[in-house]
Design goal:
By secondary structure, the chain is an all-alpha fold. Helix content is 58%, strand content 0%. The protein folds into 2 domains: 36 residues; 59 residues, Orthogonal Bundle (3-methyladenine DNA Glycosylase II, Chain A, domain 3). It is elongated, with a radius of gyration of 25 Å.
Length: 112
């Protein structure tokens, strides 16, 4: 093989890889649109009110999971969060949950 043939083969290989990458990129974009999951915006708000230690002392994987459980009503007590403080964390979460019901109008108001 001559140098010219090697260069052509290398360029051909690069072009093939670019085309494969572009096709897979388009597939990923389409998949992200098709399989998009809406998350309740209250979960992020409640998570911001938690201490953010992600320690797992509450029995959940982290603050996000505890916030999700509080919003869904699976956890009834905000004091499940062991590192939280009443004035700084618990009371604001309870007040927020009172003022922000589910889409169907039901409220899951946790207690201390």
């Amino acid at each position: 093989m001559s140098n010219k043939d090697l260069i052509i083969a290398a360029v051909f290989a690069v072009v093939i890889l670019l085309v494969i990458g572009a096709i897979l990129g388009v597939v990923l974009v389409l998949a992200s649109k098709v399989f998009h999951v809406e998350e309740d915006e209250r979960i992020k708000e409640v998570e911001k009110m938690l201490p953010g230690a992600n320690c797992g002392a509450c029995g959940k994987a982290g603050c996000h999971d505890l916030a999700e459980a509080l919003v869904k009503g699976e956890v009834k007590k905000v004091s499940t969060c062991k590192v939280g403080k009443k004035d700084k964390n618990y009371d604001p979460i309870i007040e927020y949950m009172k003022n922000h019901p589910d889409k169907d109008g039901t409220t899951h108001i946790p207690t201390i």
